[in-house]
């Protein structure tokens, strides 16, 4: 059975579209590895968490805000598909020229 990602978001904060975008990106990136992404409206104001089978991967409050989509992809890739290249999502910037 393929793993399912849960994204719990605060509907009062207007984070449904952000959550849907993240879900779309994860499903596009991990087409063969994920069984789905579930969006969960939170009863807790300000909550934004990403979980993999009850394992907390990301918490907005603990991490001091939202991260770029590439951060979520790397965190999830490292748990479900360690050898999967993420292309430009892993690009760190120009190398130092000497």
UniProtKB/TrEMBL annotation:
Keywords (A to Z) from UniProt: Redox-active center
Keyword Cell membrane belongs to the record: no
Pfam family, one: Rdx
InterPro entries: Selenoprotein_Rdx-typ, Thioredoxin-like_sf
Keyword Transferase: no
This protein's name: SelT/SelW/SelH family protein
């Amino acid at each position: 059975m393929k793993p399912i990602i849960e994204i719990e978001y605060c509907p009062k904060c207007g984070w449904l579209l952000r959550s849907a975008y993240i879900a779309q990106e994860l499903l596009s990136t991990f087409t063969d590895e994920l069984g789905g992404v579930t969006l969960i409206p939170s009863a807790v104001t300000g909550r934004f968490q990403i979980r993999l089978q009850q394992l907390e991967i990301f918490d907005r409050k603990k991490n001091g805000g939202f991260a770029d989509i590439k951060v979520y992809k790397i965190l999830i890739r490292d748990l479900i598909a360690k050898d999967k290249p993420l292309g430009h999502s892993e690009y760190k910037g120009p190398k130092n020229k000497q």
